[in-house]
């Protein structure tokens, strides 16, 4: 294992917590289950799991991500296995770099966490082709995910290879390793019926084949509606409180709780409020669940061309508790951390107590778990999506805000309510930094870098690949070796054709199955067309300029991620199906069936000029001021690493569409395509009520993705080779790096906020519970609280960044906070008599709002 470099920022929440579960010994342990839970070495365990997909970050980030999950109260990591990243062609395997699965598993093991390995090997996951290698589609006779011999042969071969690899490294629990569960297939229940009887046979075969691998740990199948009894069926949804496994002797597991949603180029940005994520988790454990996995806990990045689709963005941030760049997303991360602590306090009673449900009102209920010893935990819910409710339980009155759940580890004291967010909010900004040319440049005084420019020709370069009458399918032709396929043809326009003489404009009409296309006529870019994440197909209809004589048409058809799910998804094609010229003398000229000449990919791609060692394979032109809006252009600059340690994004807002690399590492597709201003976005998200992916969107009318993550570990201090391929034209002089910084922290807490001191709270010593609201603030590593931007104890208004004093305000608020927090890395504020004037404005429910700066 290579020495690991971990960005220090990932550690800004020091792990001062006592571990909530025993660290794993390397002795073999027994994983079994019954209807209540997994039973690990005879002990029931409540599992709070975090999906972190290893190829969606880089090895240098893995230890930090796993630690940050652990600090967030996670005890299990979950990942898919990405077949098409591992088996590049039949029998040609790769387990290096971001695909070093064993290394990832060992990092999880060293952190003392369990691991759920969802082998699939079909995974969907908004990943290119759902994770199945594209070559398998071209093995004659193959149909994916059904009772089909070639598919089953290759699937079994790959699964066996992975299982054997895990066994060799002793990674299964039965060998003392972290893996406690494995998954076969993925959400097949939705599509099984499309495959008829063969689908049913395939399900049985998949379960049997997996169980026969003898891993010593149970197998799961998610969203499988006719699971064989040898596997556990699990739920994937925004809510799984009502889920029941098919068989009564299976435990209730939730493999995908979506804390946000993915994005597609050209659509707005979905967010799921932390109150609702916490609500769904608390409800699940209230109603008898015993394993819950956040999909995603860290979404990360679809580097290179790994994004599925079509149209999935390069960012796979997912509004997850850890953001794409590896920073805790606050308050979501912290709110869930408090939830996990609270749930864990109930673990023994939940898993070993006798459950009883009591109705406390029309939409209010409590689930009580009582053990013979008298130990008791209760979870009370109010599923009213509009109104708060006061309920009486065991002669005590409790108030629950609308759509919220309270947790009572001793059946008496509320330690957490899902709607009361007391953990800090951080404001994160992308701070632009100019590209700094590395020393070798002859232009020392110039601020920007020297750009080397290389232009591709529109159409065939070198020799054509083939010529054919009619339009071929894009995917079948490129077989995904590149996003790009040139379709070229030409036609003669009569000198006597009146249409372009008397100013009437002929038009081009294109119909395409997807995903996007640039139309070049006589080497000039005329128009771009594209579909979107909902409807990949599109039409182009645009006036064009033609000339008398020969006119050359070159269509650059593009894939933007292959289909990743659906019945028979591997047969979904792309590319133009009809090309016509209308409005010329002859009427309509249908080019769809004439002779076309084809070229797969770009010249620069085939020469791999994005790899530092290969850049000299073409002649670059050097310039300080590259021209703008120039299509089909490669740009290269040699730059220093941006200063500091913060994560880095490449700002491509002034570019068109294309691909980027740093030091030969593939950053991925960039496309600052804007979301329609007519989509529905919200200023403030109402967490109450059922969440849907389009409920709390932001970014209408803005670029879906402006910044592209470039991991710090890809940089050296200077001499970094940044290569961009721009398809349609942009302004390369405006390309910047941006560093991701926490600019301020906010906290907001009400007098009645449930709060407890973790170090002292034990179920047996619940008396020590202090009915006192506290809130803590913690700056990123090696920064301190440098200013108190706002503080008001009273009834402040607004939210983080826009707080203002309300009608009730303790004038000492700022000085109290300054005294406690200034120049500290972290501080804790208490809503007590000693600190604040709690007796003023007696009829007002008071709260404290604080915003501080860290530097
Ligand atoms: C594992 O535990 C289960 C239930 O406690 C038990 O039935 C089974 O025999 C155990 N298996 C092994 C290999 O010890
Ligand atoms: C798998 O199928 C074979 C052949 O039908 C059968 O003998 C075996 O018991 C099955 N194994 C499991 C684990 O279901
Ligand atoms: C609630 O109070 C009533 C009357 O004071 C008492 O009889 C009853 O036992 C109490 N119930 C519980 C669960 O404490
Ligand atoms: C996607 O394209 C379809 C058809 O053009 C359109 O109706 C729909 O509004 C588009 N969706 C988005 C999110 O832009
Ligand atoms: C090629 O693509 C079309 C879809 O456009 C599909 O119907 C056809 O079966 C494909 N052929 C192969 C071998 O995938
Ligand atoms: C237009 O029609 C004339 C006469 O039919 C034919 O000779 C010529 O090739 C046509 N031109 C095109 C561009 O199809
Ligand atoms: C690139 O060139 C350097 C220096 O010649 C060499 O050490 C390195 O292995 C080369 N890298 C690749 C990927 O070929």
Automatic annotation (TrEMBL):
GO terms for molecular function: beta-galactosidase activity. It is an enzyme of class 3 (hydrolase). Residues 1-27 form the signal peptide. The keyword Plastid does not apply. Transmembrane segments: none annotated. Keywords: Apoplast, Glycoprotein, Glycosidase, Hydrolase, Secreted, Signal. The lineage of its organism: Eukaryota, Viridiplantae, Streptophyta, Embryophyta, Tracheophyta. It catalyses: Hydrolysis of terminal non-reducing beta-D-galactose residues in beta-D-galactosides. InterPro entries: BetaGal_gal-bd (IPR048913), Galactose-bd-like_sf (IPR008979), GH (IPR017853), GHD (IPR041392), Gly_Hdrlase_35_cat (IPR031330), Glyco_hydro_35_CS (IPR019801), Glycoside_Hdrlase_35 (IPR001944), Lectin_gal-bd_dom (IPR000922). This is Beta-galactosidase. It is found in: Secreted, Extracellular space, Apoplast. PANTHER family: BETA-GALACTOSIDASE RELATED (PTHR23421). One of its GO terms (cellular component) is apoplast. It comes from Salvia divinorum (Maria pastora). The keyword Magnesium does not apply. It comes from the Eukaryota. Its main location: secreted. Belongs to the glycosyl hydrolase 35 family. Residues 769-855 form the SUEL-type lectin domain. Its EC number is 3.2.1.23.
